[in-house]
Structure formats: structure tokens, C-alpha cells
Amino acid sequence: MNASPVIAVTGLHRGENPQPGSAVIRSLRRVYPELRIIGLVYDSLESGLFSEEDAPDAAFTMSYPGAGEEAFWQRLDAIREIERFDVLIPCLDAEMGPLVDAPEKLRERGILACLPSAASFKCRDKSKLAELCERTHCRTPQTIAVNDVNSLHQAAVTLGGNVFVKGRYYEARHAITPATREAAYWHMLEQWGAPVLVQENVLGEEYNIVGLGDGRGHILGSCSIRKMLRTAMGKGFGGMVVRDPQLDAVAQSLIAELRWNGPFELEFVKSEGPQGEYCLIEINPRFPAWCDFPSTLNCNLPAAALELALGWQPREPLRHASPGKFFIRHAIDMTGDIRDLAALTTSGQFFRQPREVIPHPASSRSL
Hints:
Layout: E1 6-10, H1 21-31, E2 36-41, E3 58-61, H2 69-82, E4 87-89, H3 93-101, H4 103-108, H5 118-123, H6 129-136, E5 143-146, H7 149-158, E6 163-166, E7 172-175, H8 178-192, E8 196-200, E9 204-214, E10 219-230, E11 236-242, H9 245-258, E12 261-271, E13 278-284, H10 292-295, H11 301-310, E14 326-328, H12 338-347, E15 349-351
Parallel strand pairs: 1-2, 1-4, 2-3
Antiparallel strand pairs: 3-15, 5-8, 6-7, 6-8, 9-10, 9-12, 10-11, 11-14, 12-13
Helix pairs in contact: 1-11, 6-9, 7-8
């Protein structure tokens, strides 16, 4: 390994439906400002490339997941001929399958990563969620996998008509009418492939938990929020820290059953009424886009994940974020240079000028 490890991070789009990569980079640099970080991107216009605060030091384009796993590994090898990174932090759902299914390919290349086992990853799949929740005594909405339009409408009728149509890996659309269900179905099929999932709509407030599992059934650190603002796609645009022993207990039972290793996000709806219970909507196998928010509250989970992957002792302890603290997402314009865009588009790579590094005050340990 390099004397100073190089970290590769994916998912740098920061639009209305932001990806987590830029938030991960910002969190890492709060503790390790001297890190060299490269971005692995699928589009030369991923906005996180052009942010002064959390842009990577270099960027490389990747082959699209649709090109197949062999193309993925070949491109990764070609990048490492130029920039031999040591740790990979994947931030997109579609990337996770090839990585957890073939951990030996990472080991052969000397790439470290904080990933769940293949068994854990499959058990949290949306189509398997009911089985997991039955074992952990956690409520989850009824979900039906469909592969054609007739099955779509039959599933919607079975679930009461008021449903969410969800992609296999990502994305969900609320649908009540047959027309909106069909439009959502074809969109999900085109974007994410079959099957498409039809899920019962549970009314109530939405809660999310970001955390880090140690692979032995324990949660090393976590932060729970109640969504305050949502986009038209239902994504959290603002959230407030909460502490609820009932929610913590549900999360612990799920992570213990999965023996989850690495980052995770749990999405819940708390059903309406005085006896409201937490209903698990899905488990995301990576950091969410809001993961830098807890880092500002002494709960830096991306830095802890890096230390776990490297086998380092934590530089900063993970503390509980203070209830009542909240975040609101804020959109700004990024400024770029056409030379960087041209380099990335034509050659698949570009390199930034060296950043001025301000040492972290908490420790003198160098990388």
C-alpha cells in the first residue's frame, strides 16, 4: 500500500436527487484533510467534480453498469495503472452487486473496501425484505414483484390501489391511477431492469438512520433523523436529529440479524395513530446523500468507515448527534473550466492543481 493511501469515491452528482459521493469526501476531509481522493464518475458533468469544498483531486470516467461486470473490472484496472488507489468507497446501489459478489477480485488487486457479505446484501434486497422483517419482528409494507403490466395492475388492486412503484435498485414513484402506475412501471423497467416492485403505501412520518456496522452484528455509530422537507421524488431535502429507543432497538435487531459490515441507511415510516410503529421501507447498502450532516455533529461515519477498512484506530470517537439539530439542503452554482471538462470527456481523466491542506487540529498523526 502507498505510504499515504489514495481513496476512490463514486457517486458525485449533486442535483435535485443527489448522490452521496461528495458528502463522503467532505466528511473524510474534516478528519483527514491531507487525503488524496479520486472520483470515479459515469458522466463528465457530475457536479461534485467542480465544487471547491469537496471536489476530488482527480477524476476518471467509468464504464456504465450496463456494459457488464467485465468492462467494470477492466476499466478499474486501467485507472489503477494511472492512479493506484488503495481504498474504494462505492456510493451507488448498482455498483454494489459486482463488488459484494466477487470480493476476491478486490483482494487480488490489493483494494480495501468496507462491504457487506454477499449473504447480507441479498437478505436486505427489496424483494427479500418481508422475510428479514419476519425474522426480526419488524413491520414492513407488503411488496409484490412484477414483470408485466397486467401483473402491475393486479398487484396494485391487491394492495389497495394507493401504492409506490419502485425500481429494483433505486427510485420510487407514488401512483394511484392506472396511467401513473404504467408510466412509473416503464420508467423503472428502463432505468433499473426487472423486476419492478409494487409496494403498499403506509401513511405516516418518514425517518432515516445512517450507520456503520462492524460485520459481527454491532452498530459502531449511527444518526437518526425525521424528514422535514422532501423533493417531488420524495428525497429528503431537510431532516432533524431524533433519539428514540424504540427506533434504535429496531435498527439494532436488523443489523444484528444481517451481521452487516460497512455503511447502511435504514428508511422507515412511523404509522399514524397513538400506537404508531416503525415500518421498514428499505435498506440501502451505502451512505446516503445526507451523511455529512452527522459529521458536523461529532459523528463522522465516512471517516470511521475508512479507518475500519484500513484497520486504523479511530482518530475521533463517534458520538451521538444532538436531538433537535437539523439540516436543510441548499443549491448553489458550480464553476468549472472547459479544459477540465474537455479532458474528462476526451481522455476519461483529469487532475486538479494541488490543494492547500490545513492540518486537522485533533491529531498530529500523518497518513
